[in-house]
Amino acid sequence: xxxxxxxxxxxxxxxxxxxxxxxxxxxxxxxxxxxxxxxxxxxxxxxxxxxxxxxxxxxxxxxxxxxxxxxxxxxxxxxxxxxxxxxxxxxxxxxxxxxxxxxxxxxxxxxxxxxxxxxxxxxxxxxxxxxxxxxxxxxxxxxxxxxxxxxxxxxxxxxxxxxxxxxxxxxxxxxxxxxxxxxxxxxxxxxxxxxxxxxxxxxxxxxxxxxxxxxxxxxxxxxxxxxxxxxxxxxxxxxxxxxxxxxxxxxxxxxxxxxxxxxxxxxxxxxxxxxxxxxxxxxxxxxxxxxxxxxxxxxxxxxxxxxxxxxxxxxxxxxxxxxxxxxxxxxxxxxxxxxxxxxxxxxxxxxxxxxxxxxxxxxxxxxxxxxxxxxxxxxxxxxxxxxxxxxxxxxxxxxxxxxxxxxxxxxxxxxxxxxxxxxxxxxxxxxxxxxxxxxxxxxxxxxxxxxxxx
Length: 454
Prior knowledge:
The protein is an alpha/beta fold.
């Protein structure tokens, strides 16, 4: 890969190269919301092949190819339509917008069984709505790769900040890099990680372009999801949720969502649809302090938007953010927490990963830890807090119940490790990490546990 724009999805690109070279390769299905860069990534990846055939199933001629069940005839028709010579060179077949033709999804199994020499990648929008309706879905005969908006590391690559990227990948990070990386992260927090917006901003460094592009994108998402409403009432509820979700409190109630009269079941169905579309994710809590981490669906979830830049635009926060030095002061800390959660989600490409937060609810009060992360045999609590002396009451509640003595705080300060005690007297170690190290939580947790002991 070359630098610049082609570097914005380096990890995903490397995953594609690994897939290409695997002797056990299966057709690959790219999953992710619209406009996260699926098509661009595959076109870049096509440079690894002698031949490249791209189908777009929004086009009638491309859809009609899949009327035949004979894989030999299908391949012949594709080569003829795309004017590709029959040769021994490797061929990459890209089937875009595959959700438009369920038969094409069914045919993926035959590529695996009869033409494993052809490298097949498929992608589409709102695939989750379609896949559950496909008869004879090729379970076990396809692989998945999940794409997300650009995380901070990918953002630095996209704007060609190679020196900052080098510092970000140094564990532990040098103290002299703190101010530069924090400034870059604040810029990233304002702009977000949608590839088109990052590319446009890189060209003219103009913040004023953000609202127009983001508003157009949000309308496109709304129109997309409405197509899958079963009736007019469903579509009305979806429109209501999309309109009011940004203003909802940190943890939501389904009943009466957005000051409406909608019932819990109606809101829940609509939100699960938006979750499947990967536009608004439902993040549920756990009550576990030891692995495995189980999801407690009986408790109120949080809403996690596809991209923090998108959320900032909906809340009209960009102007305020540009002048801030500590994001935890913004919107009651919601933006800082949202960013760290988005960063943690973004590093998982081979599984449909959702993080958890931890709760302990009882009469007279309760505790809530912002995130938990499984490391080896432990669950590590993560608080997203402002300042060096941020309140850690809930984290202490977790540590006193856990079978280890490690905790993490994400904040606007410098990296360090401190010794603390809970109110109950249990000693523990607290690793303070700058916000911008969200994608590095796995590496830093390894470093933390390996190099620091009580």
